[in-house]
Amino acid sequence: MADVNRGNRPLSPHLQIYRWQIPMLTSILTRVTGNALIVAAVMIVWWLLAAATSEAYFSVADAVLRSWFGKLVMFCAILGVWYHLLAGLRHLYYDSGRGLDIPTAERLGLACLIGSAVLTVITVIIL
Predict the structure, then answer these.
(1) Helix-, strand-, coil-residue percentages of the chain, each rounded to 5
(2) How many beta carbons lie within 10 A of that of residue 15, not counting itself?
(3) In this structure, what DSSP letter does residue 106 have?
(4) Fewer Cβ atoms within 10 A, N terminus or C terminus of the chain?
(5) What is Dmax (Cα atoms) for the chain?
(6) pLDDT over 60 at 40, yes or no
């Protein structure tokens, strides 16, 4: 049955009311880094297909991959791989029923953020 009392109910709070929290940020970053991984995978597959097609087509694909945009996408992909690994380990810890209190969740979120940044820098330096 239709609710006839809609005008008297309070509106639900919106994003302007909430303060940013680490678990909220890590959830959004999981989606952003996942999209960077998709773009990187498409670029790598395109590069490999171009290598199998012709030398001229490969030179175009290789130039794109070596451009500032290609390097940015690959850097974000490295960050995404490390972030998804650490976030997956964090979720395995959550699945065991531990770390679900707010202070621990915030510390684990910070550990994922800092750890993925440090591991990305180490990977870029090594490669």
Answers:
(1) 80, 0, 20
(2) 7
(3) H
(4) N
(5) 69
(6) yes
Report the C-alpha dihedral over residues 38, 40, 43, 44, rounded to 10 degrees. -110
What pLDDT, on a 0 to 100 scale, did the predictor assign at position 23? 86
pTM score of the predicted model = 0.79
47 class by beta-carbon count within 10 Å (0-12 exposed, 13-18 middle, 19+ buried): middle
pLDDT surpasses 70 at 5: no
How far apart (Å, rounded) are the C-alpha atoms in residues 52 and 47? 9
- Indicate the burial class of 64 (C-beta count within 10 angstroms; 0-12, 13-18, 19 or more): middle
Question: What is the C-alpha separation between 108 and 100, in angstroms, rounded?
Answer: 10
CB atoms near residue 51 (< 10 Å): 13
> What CATH architecture does domain 21-126 belong to?
Up-down Bundle (1.20)
Domain parsing of the chain, residue ranges: 21-126
pLDDT above 70 for 15: no
- 93-121 residue pLDDT tens: 999 999 889 899 999 999 999 999 999 99
